[in-house]
Amino acid sequence: MVKVGIFGCYRGAVFAQLAPLCGAKITAVFDKNETMVDRVKEHAQDYKICKSFEELLESDIEAVVLTNYFTEHAPYAIKALKAGKHVFSETMSNITLAEGVELCEAVEESGKIYAFAENYPFMKSCLELKRVYEKGEIGRVLYGEGEYVHPIECDEMNQLAPGTRHWRNWLPSTYYCTHALAPLMYMTGTTPKTVIARSIFAPDKSKHTAMHNADATAIMLIQMDNGSLFRTTGWARHYSHCVWYRLGCTNGSTETVRPDPDKKYMVNNQIFDSEWHDEGNAEGAGHGGGDFGIFSDFINAIEKNEKPAFDVYSAVTMAAVGILAWRSVLDHGKEMIIPDYKDKTTREKLKFDTLSPFPDENGNADIPCCSNPDYKPTEEDLAYAEEIWKKNGLYREDLI
């Protein structure tokens, strides 16, 4: 059993539940919000409740699950790696190109396993598309599509983003790109090389929230290393809810079937039922079995000392797609080259690239988080959001 610690118990409770099914044991947990620690109780026993991340690292854990805030993954991953721990990090791996350099160097120096916890590639139908592609019968991929459409109503959004400085209120439309992109990469074994992006300004989608980003979605055109072109979304907020993937290849095509990609898929316009093959305990796990698949992959990588499905280079490459796609949006769709983080000369050029759309402790951001840089929530929007925060016991002075 691999001894695992969790930082971030709201989402981390999912992995506490899956741990015994994956060959792991939760032995320590930490959350900045102590009320969240109780979420683990239902799924784990005999674990230490830590008062700091440092205390978590000093416990008997061999690996750490990072399910903390979106903007904080790289710094805590680096701390864990330097402490000799394996790392399982949720999206995104880094929010600046410079953080990507630091993260790669920390992984290389530690010799530990770093796994990017992108779960959508392990959903049932995504695995079916991967099997179809790897058989070779439909040929080489020429064109791929990935959509992650997740509209959220204002009251729910306010509960998910309690505070004007909460990261979700500053999230550019390209940054949350891995749910759409990672499955296509996993199916085809291809890597992004360039990206072009445009974003759709729709201020009505952010009404009654504290969001400083009022883009409904972004569309990214990504050139892959085999010459193929992928069209993907970031976090799309238009209706209706949808997760969908397609591969157009030299001899055929395959895609998931709307509206429920977990049940059916198509090959050359013929519909098939999606089935589990040798995925063990995936049935019933969250995100269509994806949570089990990616966590099990991480534990296996530790036990066998082998590369996980998404290593640090995959992680920082996908982060670079989101980061540079946003710069493309701000520069009217200019093509951006995705850096090769394995190349140390390239890393030197990125070490000081700390541009970020997320505000610092003084509320200042380097670049806009909205395609309309003049947009900001109105006083009425903020008053409504604050009312929801207080009503649900989420109001925090440190995030206002």
Written account of the structure:
The structure is a single chain. The chain has helices spanning 9-22, 53-58, 73-82, 97-110, 124-135, 154-160, 178-188, 290-304, 312-330, 344-350, 379-391, and strands at residues 2-7, 24-30, 48-49, 63-66, 86-89, 114-116, 141-149, 192-201, 215-224, 229-233, 242-249, 253-256, 264-267, 270-273, 336-337. Helices cover 32% and strands 20% of the residues. It starts with a strand and ends in a 9-residue tail after the last helix. It folds into two domains: 2-116, NAD(P)-binding Rossmann-like Domain (Rossmann fold, 3-Layer(aba) Sandwich), CATH 3.40.50.720; 121-283 and 311-350, Dihydrodipicolinate Reductase, domain 2, CATH 3.30.360.10. The protein is α/β, with parallel strands linked by helices and 400 residues long. Strand 4 (63-66), helix 3 and strand 5 form a beta-alpha-beta unit. The strands form two sheets. The protein has a nine-stranded mixed beta sheet, covered by helices on one side. Strands 3-2-1-4-5-6 form a six-stranded parallel beta sheet, sandwiched between helices. The chain is built from eleven helices and 15 strands.
One letter per element, helices H and strands E, the order comes to EHEEHEHEHEHEHHEEEEEEEHHEHH
- The residue-averaged pLDDT reads 95
CATH topology of the largest domain: Dihydrodipicolinate Reductase, domain 2
Main beta sheet strand tally, sense and closure: 9 strands, mixed
The CATH superfamily of the largest domain bears the name Dihydrodipicolinate Reductase, domain 2
How widely separated are the two ends?
42 Å
Global structural class: alpha/beta
Unreliable spans: none
At CATH's second level, what is the architecture of the largest domain?
2-Layer Sandwich
CATH class category label of the largest domain:
Alpha Beta
> Helix content range of the residues, please?
25-40%
